[in-house]
Amino acid sequence: MSFPQQSQPSQTIAEKDEERRRLRRLQMMVGMVRAVLSQEPGLTIENAAELISDCRHAALAMFPGKELAFDLIYKPRLERAVKERYRLASTVRESF
Question: What is the domain range of residue 60?
């Protein structure tokens, strides 16, 4: 009995560890950005949008080609923090 060859080589332990580190770094970064969005007293809506954009660019530098994943997982969390802080209507979401 033989197993079919995988089309992609499996990751080494070092590659898996590096990916876990990058993912943890991304989670911490998103958490810090969310804290700033929620707590910074002088933060304007424009600055908040810029923070979200900068966070997205940093995330894509760590995980190239994962725009959809960021937009589905992290961006809504950050936008929700802005909406809660500024009590924005849900139609404003598209501006971020």
Answer: 17-88
